[in-house]
UniProtKB/TrEMBL annotation:
Taxonomic lineage of the native organism: Eukaryota, Rhodophyta, Bangiophyceae, Cyanidiales, Cyanidiaceae
Main subcellular localisation: mitochondrion
Location in or out of the cell: Mitochondrion matrix
Superkingdom of the organism of origin: Eukaryota
Organism of provenance: Cyanidiococcus yangmingshanensis
The name this protein goes by in its record: Protein-serine/threonine kinase
Gene Ontology molecular function terms on file: ATP binding; pyruvate dehydrogenase (acetyl-transferring) kinase activity
Amino acid sequence: MPGAGGRSLLAKLGTVFLRPKPWGLTPAPWWPLSARLSSSPEDPIHSSWLVGGCPPSQPDVAYTPLEAKPLPHGVPKSREEALGLIARYARRSATPVSLRQLLEFGRRPTPKKLLLAAQLMHRELAIRLAHRVVELQALPYGLSAMRSVRRVRELYENSFADIVMYPRPEKEGEEERRFTELLRRIRDRHADVVRQIACGVLELKQSCGMGADDIHISSFLDRFYTSRIGIRVLISQQVSMSLERARQGYVGIIHIRCRPAHVAADAADAARALAYRHYGEEPPEVVILGKTDLEFPYIEGHLYHVSYLSC
């Protein structure tokens, strides 16, 4: 919490750090995700954020769902056959998708657009899940053998199998919505993954003394949590656009005029309330400095998470 004289919470908009802090672990260095800002005729500021794609030094790849052709294989007839495709999908590269692209694609949703996005998800999520399965199978120091990590790997394997065994949606309307409902179930099923991975690292530390402060484990956590954020953003955007009632001022889960100062103030209030309940004393006020009227399209939950952990 802030010191006696209060604390300045500065919104650093050049780079946004979005790695969740595993419960009970010493936090490893946060991994920066590109958050470049540029002007647009329609919005004062656009943020271009790569959702689990190439490093910030590389250019964005155009968001073109029409290129999301299925890999040349039929629908697997069994879970074993589906799991046999993991290595094949893991050799494919994930497609970088920026926040700007999600925003522009979703501004005027149509059944055709929703179908194209669902077809991209059918291929893209299988690739990203396969990457995580392969990595979870080959972690250092025996981390892959920890019970909690094995559970997470099985969870990712099951989700991969669910997607590749589900026929690629080819029709607008009900067929697309049924597939999107599957994506929602997968997202909800993975809600406890952060805690499970944290438990796995603690199990490893208890067994051999290696923990999150090790550079190899820290690098794995950075990659894993960054990928998880990207997967959840893609699924949540599709679910919001297809299955949920549109909210004014939002394109899916993206708030068109997000105000970082307001989000930071809400997070600070929540952190102060938690400190009061824990310590029984009124914590100092948190002072928000900078351009407090700044607005730009962003996912408020991510800014809230970063701001809350900064208090």
